[in-house]
Design goal:
Elements lengths: L12 H27 L4 H27 L2 E2 L6 H13 L6 E5 L6 E4 L7 E5 H6 L2 H16 L2 H28 L10 H41 L2 H15 L4 H4 L30 H16 L4
Parallel strand pairs: 2-4
Antiparallel strand pairs: 1-2, 3-4
């Protein structure tokens, strides 16, 4: 690994454009939905307030919640000197503070990063990935994870998940209202009206979920590109992805469930079933497409292109 600090890097404009367009569509969808709910007599401030508190707590506690759910333990530089050195040098290339470093004691080869901003970042790797990847490949994986933090992925997902959580909360509330009658205290709403609102809420939730999942896939492409730019070795990340996926696919489901709660944050999803083609309900893009893009970036970088 070289010690040269790289402070400027190229982003994939196509990915960035698609991310912003997806966010715009998500905002437009919920703006129209909010107008529909107000016309139906729903009190949005109450629902938005409750969900807002839930999302804020999740946003600020995300690193602690994921640590607890995965069993990750923070480690010192004395305990993991090589890992700390890699993280520190790559963080310097991003011009970001040194994040916390954690290790998950499992044979499953994987890694993830979390943190609402670079000052509150955490990078976690499993013992399995440390054993299976060489230093060059592990460096590329860490670069990918730090890219998630540098790209402010948590902030984007927090906004998107807030909107989807609102519809999920509304569906639950409307379900109980249909059972016991009434709708937010407005007894003049008949059962047909409540059912209509419930059906529209279900449709909006479904579409919103698809848009959020599209965002999560774009963030992986973005982190692949940015991480490869910073590490300067797209080929190493492609090699690492292929090596990890080849191992994960052979791990029993009962072992994979250990990381299921953090699946959306992992560099490779905890389960790779259905990975052969683009899955609208997947949090990650197809592996073969990620590797293809990285190989192409490797060729462009070799000739000084982007």
């Amino acid at each position: 690994m070289t010690s040269t600090t790289t402070r400027k890097f190229h982003k994939d404009r196509g990915i960035v454009t698609r991310m912003y367009f997806t966010m715009f569509m998500l905002g437009f969808l919920y703006a129209v939905f909010a107008l529909f709910l107000m016309a139906a007599g729903m009190e949005l401030m109450f629902v938005g307030g409750i969900v807002g508190i839930m999302v804020v707590v999740q946003y600020y506690m995300s690193d602690k919640l994921i640590l607890m759910s995965t069993g990750a333990k923070t480690v010192t530089a004395e305990e993991q000197p090589t890992l700390h050195r890699m993280v520190k040098e790559l963080a310097a290339r991003y011009d970001m503070p040194m994040p916390k470093v954690a290790v998950i004691d499992t044979a499953i080869p994987n890694a993830f990063a979390t943190g609402r901003n670079p000052k509150n970042a955490l990078v976690a790797v499993t013992t399995g990935i440390q054993q299976r990847l060489n230093e060059r490949e592990l460096q590329a994986v860490i670069g990918h994870e730090l890219a998630h933090v540098a790209n402010r992925d948590m902030r984007v997902l927090a906004i998107a998940n807030f909107l989807v959580t609102v519809t999920s909360f509304l569906m639950t509330m409307l379900f109980w209202n249909m059972l016991f009658g009434g709708m937010g205290g407005r007894r003049n709403n008949n059962g047909g009206g409540v059912m209509m609102v419930y059906l529209v809420t279900m449709i909006v939730y479904f579409i919103g979920q698809l848009l959020v999942l599209a965002l999560t896939r774009y963030r992986e492409y973005g982190a692949d590109h940015t991480g490869a730019e910073i590490s300067g070795d797209p080929g190493a990340l492609a090699d690492a992805l292929e090596k990890i996926s080849g191992t994960v696919a052979n791990i029993p489901d009962k072992d994979l469930r250990k990381l299921q709660t953090a699946s959306a944050f992992l560099i490779i999803p905890a389960a790779l079933k259905g990975e052969g083609s683009m899955n609208l309900f997947s949090t990650h893009p197809p592996l073969h497409e990620r590797v293809k893009r990285l190989r192409e970036l490797e060729q462009r970088m070799r000739y000084g292109l982007r």
